[in-house]
């Protein structure tokens, strides 16, 4: 008799890299690689994949995995002296066997706790001591929750500052069928125009060319509506005021070695982030940033797709 698969399973993934599979009772699942502390799969209770991972993704250090949810820390993008998006996505994280307690109301018992601490080598690149704890949890029903807790453990009395993003790649039917709600009328920095500041116009955001924008002071809830798939992603966030929206489009897609030429049509990055105002921690201080992803079927007929309800409910 086949035994039921465990809710939390440690196993080997592509190229023998360690990964953890989470499964909740109704059939939802997620996969997390210790390499990068990176979620690479999130499936709903029907077994449908919600995240995009490139068919050309290289699951091999030191290249970050192209897709899923890379963690950008301690630097987002090229906004600083470190490598693009910082080093957390290129490190092998460990299982945190004894994490400090979470609030009693964290609804899930299907989760894994990871931890990243600097090695002596890392210290030369970023001379700070820290503990980065990441909990990846599946709620009953399949919502995916990521909680990052970053603590300054410097013993030299020095504060440090960082920027951060959950660089989520959503899987979508077709980029021309998708719109993002919750960011209209906000200010953004345009990465395609030397980070110049603009104000978004119009009702909702749709896509017809390359986009790489950092929206500032965004609401805690953003919706990504996929008309063809009849599915809406709802991203809820806490501690992360900014939101990056990125699609490389055809020209940049061709320039990315680990990304298929046409794959830009089937992905959209919407990234809960803290970029404009870096987070500063004194020794002993801890910062917390949460992202929660859920889906709402658009065929659902109780008015849940009313943008006002999606965004305020
Ligand atoms: O190629 P990567 O280093 O993974 O970065 C991919 C993209 O990430 C973010 O969305 C940035 O805003 C983009 O400027 C960048 O191109």
TrEMBL record:
Active site: 167, 271
Catalytic activity: alpha-D-glucose 6-phosphate = beta-D-glucose 6-phosphate
Pfam families documented for this protein: Aldose_epim (PF01263)
Annotated substrate binding sites: 66, 84, 89
Swiss-Prot/TrEMBL keywords: Isomerase
GO molecular function, one term: carbohydrate binding
Name of the top EC class for this enzyme: isomerase
Entry EC number(s): 5.1.3.15
Classification via Gene3D superfamilies: 2.70.98.10
GO BP: carbohydrate metabolic process
GO CC field: cytoplasm
Xref: InterPro entries: Aldose_1/G6P_1-epimerase, G6P_1-epimerase, Gal_mutarotase_sf_dom, GH-type_carb-bd
The keyword Translocase is assigned to this record: no
UniProt similarity note: Belongs to the glucose-6-phosphate 1-epimerase family.
PANTHER family in the record: APOSPORY-ASSOCIATED PROTEIN C-RELATED, GLUCOSE-6-PHOSPHATE 1-EPIMERASE
Name the UniProt record assigns to this protein: glucose-6-phosphate 1-epimerase
Native source organism of the sequence: Cocos nucifera
Taxonomic placement: Eukaryota, Viridiplantae, Streptophyta, Embryophyta, Tracheophyta
